[in-house]
Design goal:
- The complex is a heterotetramer, with 2 copies of chain A (88 residues) and 2 copies of chain C (153 residues).
- Chain A has 88 residues and is α+β, with helices and mostly antiparallel strands.
- Chain A is built from 3 helices and 7 strands.
- Chain A is 24% helix and 34% strand.
- Chain A starts with a strand and ends in a 6-residue tail after the last strand.
- Chain C is of the alpha+beta class.
- Chain C has one domain: Alpha-Beta Complex (Aldehyde Oxidoreductase, domain 3).
- Chain C is globular, with a radius of gyration of 16 Å.
- Classes of the chains: A alpha+beta (88), C alpha+beta (153).
- At the C-D interface, helix 1, strand 2 and helix 3 of C face helix 1, strand 2 and helix 3 of D.
Chain lengths: 88, 88, 153, 153
Amino acid sequence: MEETRVMLEIELCGRLADVGGALAQIAIPENGCSVAELFGLIAQQHPALAHPLVSGRVRACVNETIVTPDARVMAGDEVALFPPVSGG
Amino acid sequence: MEETRVMLEIELCGRLADVGGALAQIAIPENGCSVAELFGLIAQQHPALAHPLVSGRVRACVNETIVTPDARVMAGDEVALFPPVSGG
Amino acid sequence: MSAEVTLATKEFDPAELLGAFTHGLGGEGAVVSFTGHARGAAKDGAAIEALVLESYRGVTLASMKAIAADAMARFDISRCRVVHRTGRIAPGEAIVFVATASAHRRAAFEAADFIMDRLKTEAVFWKREESPDRKRWIEPTSGDHADAQRWQE
Amino acid sequence: MSAEVTLATKEFDPAELLGAFTHGLGGEGAVVSFTGHARGAAKDGAAIEALVLESYRGVTLASMKAIAADAMARFDISRCRVVHRTGRIAPGEAIVFVATASAHRRAAFEAADFIMDRLKTEAVFWKREESPDRKRWIEPTSGDHADAQRWQE
């Protein structure tokens, strides 16, 4: 039996929006998943984003905190993907 | 027979003026002398200036140019003694 | 001891910021400022119409504040001021302003230098140069990373 | 490519100088400024009424110009501005202002830093702190000499 999925809206920042639009809808397990698993799901569901995600240079921001790949995300979290930053 | 002497007015800058006043009158040979010789004459004629002059840290400025000890000075030259400088 | 950090959505005047910073001094002898201005031409010489800086909610300001706090902790400075634009910036306009104050000029110089190196590589902004016929994303250069690396020792 | 150097006999406003310098930019991305302010207390904590700077005729300005020209030759900067007070300076007033502009922030920082180190040890000024009960001449510290030495390599 397939696990129930829920939709998570992900904001794509910087150059990632050029590839995947400003927002991506990703189906994730109802009980959430790790950021590493989320990256895999995004790559499956939005193949155009697979390349930047495997670069190792994209970080996830969950509820306004940049998190490590083992952090968990749930439906309802405010998730964004950050490509390399550059101020100044 | 003693050599003819002429008076040279020397401006004393910075802390040197505390010791010797703003201006010192020094008798020098009519045909001029080197800066090194001038320092010796100043030390003789104004013993209070002897100590700073032997420190090796005082430079002579002749006609608006900082000069080396072998430069020559004559009556009529605009001479100043510079203790260590400090801007900023 | 104070750090004041602002994310600016409109053009600002670096001279005015330096004036206000100077006015607030408490006897410090040394003030260093850095201003970064948007360029009118890309590295390849092509004209740039605007530099566009994207930021992300509270995270961008928090990243700026963290950098300022690090500088305050690391260097013997008594105050610092950091202002960074977000949005669309015309050539010549200021992008970033940093000021530091200290009793010692070396600390003031190093802290401003450090803050700029960190802003270039760690502040949460994404920037692109826009001209009529292209958009180009700008990431930190290897020089920027090398500059930031200097402070790791 | 220009260096503008002024010996100021009256109080000046660093913010105004930064504004004029910025206004004159020709597309440079990086501007660094340094301002040195007169302190209200000596190193031993005693109150200072005034810092008095003596200069000597054309030699002082010439020494400032030589330092600015060295900076222009040595670093990849396109302009610099140097203003230095002479005379009696009240606590808080600016003593010296240096600004540098470059396409590269590292060059702008280093050139301003270099100019200050050289001004501290080579510009033709003599300065003393005056308080009601004493006068104290200030010479470059060993730290100032060490700072200036950094550029000899």
